[in-house]
Fold this sequence. Notes:
By secondary structure, the protein is mainly α. The protein has one domain. It has 8 helices and 2 strands; from the N terminus they run H-H-H-H-H-E-E-H-H-H. It has a two-stranded antiparallel ribbon with strand order 1-2. The longest helix has 35 residues, at 27-61. The mean pLDDT is 90.
Amino acid sequence: xxxxxxxxxxxxxxxxxxxxxxxxxxxxxxxxxxxxxxxxxxxxxxxxxxxxxxxxxxxxxxxxxxxxxxxxxxxxxxxxxxxxxxxxxxxxxxxxxxxxxxxxxxxxxxxxxxxxxxxxxxxxxxxxxxxxxxxxxxxxxxxxxxxxxxxxxxxxxxxxxxxxxxxxxxxxxxxxxxxxxxxxxxxxxxxxxxxxxxxxxxxxxxxxxxxxxxxxxxxxxxxxxxxxx
Length: 229
């Protein structure tokens, strides 16, 4: 079956308005159009997510400044179709129950990786400076956690919303954004983080330590995002 793009469906709907005005539009027709739009936009989002994963895999296989730039470009491209899906939020349980795992924000970045010494995190968040990339052993809610292996289970079932704090965002677009750009220290001024590609380098070229675990986290986060999409 040929899948129509969102723009094609929108154009078709606009052209059909005069004809629809001449007769009553049925509930079934509204539902069918809603479903077709949803299928198209979420399919586009999944395709863009897969392209992001491919760019991340290429970067991690051979870390370089060019590879990091390509992964960042793929992240920005992946956001375009995703943002169109937000029209399906607020009332559709299938979307509302799923959305926090892929698009939660803001996040206490210190849960995931190194941050500036001045960073305090959110109020009442004991995990705001956890830095799971640097610490393979830690405790959450009084329970010891073995994070020697960074995988989807750790991100989704242990770290995400850890301690019952919504700012502990371990999965989704914005966790990946932090891993690609680093911490934004520009305050209210324009700008973004400036993570060096060497944060994913091997051997002596590695900056800020734990580059292998940082790469494992980025790989797990993008893989989980693709699965969710």
